Amino acid sequence: MVNGESMPISPAAPATTVLDFLRQWGFTGSKEGCAEGECGACSVLVARPGIATPTEWVAVNACLIPVAALDGQEIVTAEGLGTPKALHPVQYEMAVRGGSQCGYCTPGFICSMAAEYYRADRNEQLSIAMESVAANGVTARFDGAANGSAVGAADSVSAGSGGAHDDGSEHGPNGFDLHALSGNLCRCTGYRPIRDAAYALGDPAADDPLGQRREGAPPEPVPTVLERDGQTFARPATLAEALELLRARPDAVVVAGSTDWGVEVNIGGRRAEYVVAIDRLPELRGLRVEPDRIEIGAALTLTEIERSLRGTVPLLAELFPQFASRLIRNGATLGGNLGTGSPIGDAPPALLALGASLVLSGADGEREVALAEYFTGYRRSVLRPGELIRAIRIPRPLAPVTGFHKIAKRRFDDISSVAVAFALDIRDGVVRSARIGLGGVAATPIRAYETEAALIGLPWSRETVEAVARVLEGEGTPMSDHRASAEYRGAMLGQSLLKLFAQTHEEVSA
């Protein structure tokens, strides 16, 4: 369904993106600006299972998703929101407040803004964010203090915005989370008029069709097989079917949100003979918080995890706003981030610090592997042919002192030069246990075992931290590349520990 009308996917090729499909049918509001999910000009709304309502309108990058992945689903483009004679409230506010100039990026902004406009728990999340800022006021979290859904917004939107909400929450008086627009770039307006439009929005009218659609059941995932030119896209109905497919086709490319594979298709020109989509498998989409552990389904999107946990895991709550953009987090999954095996993925350092393990499923059964033992080399892991990551398990209780530091060229929506995650248990001023995860300083994400050993048993003091920071600087085997030199990466490791101490020593002492 596109803007309320049924449209055939065939004869699209398995690699055809939603963006190309839409433009071929004349929906040219969606644009290609970067083809890798960084500009947001292509964003559209997709109906997905909701958290605050049965169905939610979620903004995604149409340039990354294969159109076959939306078989049987519902899409709304900027053309479907309103008309020149009957503007949608989001379009109206953007127009009267000068939020559009050249117009190239405007339809993408409109769709991202509309997704937040229709989010039913906007004001509830605003209250959580305000409480978090009042309670913490710093990046690191101590004693499990809850983090808001978005503390700090993307530079592209919030830089220099000033105004009535400079408390760090980046929420408007209407509950609008400015992070909803991260990943949307504009070179004309300077962003203030766009922010003003977002903060001026009220609630959807009672007779708003898209607002009413939220109360109905979400579209069910449709088992799909699309074949053309020797290529196949398959969406199995169950995990068992997926595992049998992978046993028969161990060479298949497994995709969830396609935020990584979509870039390979667009920029690298890669094609796969067989693609298996697992993002809607119910067995991979559960989330359970139990007394001794938290289990997160590998195919839940980062946004779904963030909103469902509501700060239950402060280290993850700190990670999420720094992970790419909202548009990417609406599709990206922890399973995908771990499955790629990238040494600069943002999630692995945090999960290593949390002591996470992975549940790996194959046609012959399941096994559990500690994340610290999962990576075996550059983009290699212990995954056997035909296996999938089904879930991530985080043991409880959680360490009371945590922090996630991402060093990159931009504050947000950028690839890490270095990522450092801390999880410390400090009692009576002494470090009782420590887990530190590192990214960007070796061929794989790693634990900083020497630093952890050096910290345990010592007082949490400046003298300790300054001495142990030198140990942390020597962890890993960092390399020099276009993002950072090896020397810089090592220096940032040491500085990260000093930063954590500066953020937490007063609370620990209290």
TrEMBL record:
Coiled coil: none annotated. The keyword Hydrolase does not apply. The keyword Iron applies. Residues 202-226 are annotated as: Disordered. SUPFAM superfamilies: 2Fe-2S ferredoxin-like, CO dehydrogenase flavoprotein C-terminal domain-like, CO dehydrogenase ISP C-domain like, FAD-binding/transporter-associated domain-like. Keywords: FAD, Flavoprotein, Iron, Metal-binding, Oxidoreductase. Residues 226-399 form the FAD-binding PCMH-type domain. Residues 1-81 form the 2Fe-2S ferredoxin-type domain. SMART domains: CO_deh_flav_C (SM01092). Pfam families: CO_deh_flav_C, FAD_binding_5, Fer2, Fer2_2. InterPro entries: 2Fe-2S-bd, 2Fe-2S-bd_dom_sf, 2Fe-2S_ferredoxin-like_sf, 2Fe-2S_ferredoxin-type, 2Fe2S_fd_BS, Beta-grasp_dom_sf, CO_DH_flav_C, CO_DH_flav_C_dom_sf. This is FAD binding domain-containing protein.
